Amino acid sequence: MHTFLLSRRSLLAVAAAAALLPQLSWAQPGGERITIVAPFPPGGPVDTLSRMLADGLAKRYNKPAVVENLPGAAGNIGIDKVKRAKPDGTTLLVIPAGNLTINPTLMANFPFNIDKDFAPITMLAKTPNVLVAAPGAKLRNVKELVEQAKAKPNTLSYASPGVGSGLHLAGELFKQQAGIDILHVPYKGTAPALNDVLGGTVPLMFTNLPAALGFIKSGKLVALGITDDVRDKTVAPEIPTLKEQGIPGVVVTSWYGVLAPAGTPPELVARLASDAAEILSQPAVREQLHAQGLQEVAQKPAEFAAHIKAETATWARIIKARNIQAE
């Protein structure tokens, strides 16, 4: 009798302990395959990250995982597909920051409510932006830029890939924090904007660090500052941040995250975030990301959701204060 009681107590203890454990190991995507929706054409960071995630999840769950590129309507076609998908972890969305944090304010009839329509899983990767100057501008650092802008208002200008782009808003935020006014010159894409800065037509530009790095190293562009809290230790540790140079609050990274449809069970969202972190930590994956100027990021779902909300609020203030309207 005594032995039986001990055994029964042991079983009860084990059962109680198991009940307290997170249910991550039991949570798995349903269905026969996993679909990663990339709402842009093949090529570029969204496509690259989608394929890395698909490959890793396929190995973990021993089922096919495919990438479906659905470009169109500034990404909204692919976003809509995921919004309407069954919330069982079989359909996921890989998306850049602007679609989540800029478009809801910039677009007059934005068709989604990010808070209500999606379950944020994790940020996957980011790349800092950099403020660059044409050598002919004869600017060596941010202090010289600010001094010139204050001495001769509206004589300096900066290029961007277009009105309402993250790099346009980076410039507006910089102007606000530095207390200066410089003219915005919008282009239709990064390439033509960067070409005119290289040619000296426009003296300044905020751009992704990977796009500018080769020109910086060859002396064709001057790097004035990184738009992040810390220096990029991976590819350009020598470039100081704007914060180091007396302009705090301009933290504008180009980042990419993954989301599931609203209603996806929290334990499954947490499991997918954990899976993504493990995939991104693999040396081969990290090497591939670093080669493209991307830094791997792993966040808890609640942390990622809070980041989206905070950045959305920042851009909403800038867009409304500067009366920026989508073209």
From TrEMBL:
Instruction: Report the CDD domains cross-referenced here.
Output: PBP2_Bug27
Sorted alphabetically, the keyword list is: Signal
* Pfam families registered for this protein in UniProt: TctC
- Which region is the signal sequence? 1-27
Please tell me whether the keyword Magnesium is annotated for this protein.
Answer: no
PANTHER family under this entry? BLR1237 PROTEIN, TRICARBOXYLATE-BINDING PROTEIN
Q: What is this protein called?
A: Tripartite tricarboxylate transporter substrate binding protein
Organism encoding this protein: Ramlibacter pinisoli
